[in-house]
Design brief:
It contains ten helices and twelve strands. It has about 375 residues and is an alpha/beta fold. Helix 4 packs across helix 5 and helix 6 crosses helix 8.
Length: about 375
């Protein structure tokens, strides 16, 4: 049986006993019996506080919704926000309430997904405050060996990319924390409660563990598998499928010719995927209530699929075919277009992008990152 860190908590009880624990978690913080990490730590140890990332500790908040401080009704434990308008950091007052911070959230293995930056910010804050930090590790659902995409460049950091990772980075959260702590000389007192039985080559569909949606936008494993590529459309005027039952699987806009786009994409022979012409009306987000035309990306072979290359090919095919295509304007916070923040570079916005050359550049960066990350493997 594949065991995540929370399933091995009893073997590490001495690490937690007698300490006031602060927990960063989300709905994916569950053991193999679907019991919440919140309830387990509350029962076994002294759970003094919780710190809420995007979506809330119980997952009841939408993407981007700000979180207020509140009391968890099930345990009575205070919940402090790590997703505030002015900051996503642990404050000295929050850290004064605990002796140790514990992190348990299922990662999706894509650089854009914000939970790992909540983890890294908290790791930095704990290092500065002299507080130990524990990661209850979880398998990478996309596997721990496949690396795809470019590495984030200096000057393009944001909450959707705050560390020089490849887009699909093939590490667990515990390994990301270990890597960042070492490479930045944080001096953190970091502990990782490891997984057991997981091989790096395994995707979650090969483990027998259930898929628990890490947020409302990632309802299925195939959504997560496509996300490293199709998330790029969040930086464009196309719908990425939010407001439908298939976010990041459906891509389209009112100005797209669905049949033409599907024909062009299938002609490329991309591995592991079939593009079906599709029509949809988002119930919220971009093009709310409008008929969108586009494609549904069906995953046919999880192993063969290369989602980042799929996303890049789809992006530039839409840009070539439909003159109404546009990148969204710069984000107020840092003045960069959101596509640059997702890319971690500005290479997508060139006047005449050589897509094959760009993808080869990405493959070279992926190979270099794969070599760099290997020394931090825990499995």
């Amino acid at each position: 049986m594949i065991r995540n860190g929370i399933d091995n908590i009893d073997a590490y009880a001495d690490l937690f006993r007698g300490k006031r624990l602060g927990l960063i978690t989300a709905p994916t913080g569950l053991n193999a019996e679907f019991r919440s990490t919140i309830d387990i730590l509350h029962e076994k140890f002294h759970l003094a506080a919780m710190f809420s990332p995007e979506h809330g500790v119980r997952g009841d908040l939408a993407a981007g919704a700000l979180v207020d401080t509140y009391e968890d009704p099930a345990t009575g434990v205070p919940v402090y926000s790590l997703y505030r308008k002015d900051s996503k950091r642990l404050t000295p007052e929050m850290l004064d309430a605990v002796d140790m911070v514990v992190y348990d959230i299922q990662d999706v293995g894509a650089r854009y997904y914000t939970f790992i930056y909540t983890m890294l910010y908290a790791l930095e804050d704990c290092a500065k405050a002299g507080k130990p930090f524990v990661v209850l590790d979880r398998m990478n659902p996309l596997d721990g060996v496949t690396v795809e995409g470019n590495v984030l460049k200096e000057g393009f950091t944001s909450f959707v990319g705050n560390y020089p990772l490849a887009v699909r980075y093939g590490l667990t959260a515990g390994e990301v924390a270990t890597m960042a702590s070492s490479e930045t000389n944080l001096g953190a007192e970091l502990y990782v409660v490891p997984c057991e039985g997981w091989s790096r080559t395994m995707t979650i569909s090969e483990t027998g563990r259930a898929w628990i949606p890490p947020s409302m936008g990632i309802p299925r494993f195939h959504t997560a598998l496509l996300y490293p590529g199709t998330c790029l459309f969040e930086g464009t005027n196309l719908s990425e499928g939010r407001g439908t039952t298939a976010p990041f699987e459906l891509i389209g806009a009112p100005f797209v010719d669905a049949e033409l786009l599907a024909k062009e994409m299938n002609a490329k022979g991309l591995p592991g995927v079939y593009f079906r012409p599709s029509y949809f009306k988002p119930s919220f987000s971009k093009h709310e209530g409008e008929l969108c035309r586009g494609v549904y990306a069906h995953v046919l072979d999880e192993r063969a699929l290369r989602p980042v290359e799929l996303g890049v090919e789809l992006l530039f095919t839409v840009k070539k075919l439909f003159p109404e295509f546009a990148f969204l304007p710069p984000v107020k916070e840092n003045g960069r277009p959101f596509i640059d923040l997702l890319c971690g570079d500005n290479v997508y916005r060139g006047d005449s992008v050589d897509v094959p050359a760009l993808l080869e550049q990405f493959r070279e960066e992926s190979r270099a990152f794969a070599a760099r990350k290997a020394q931090f493997h825990l499995y």
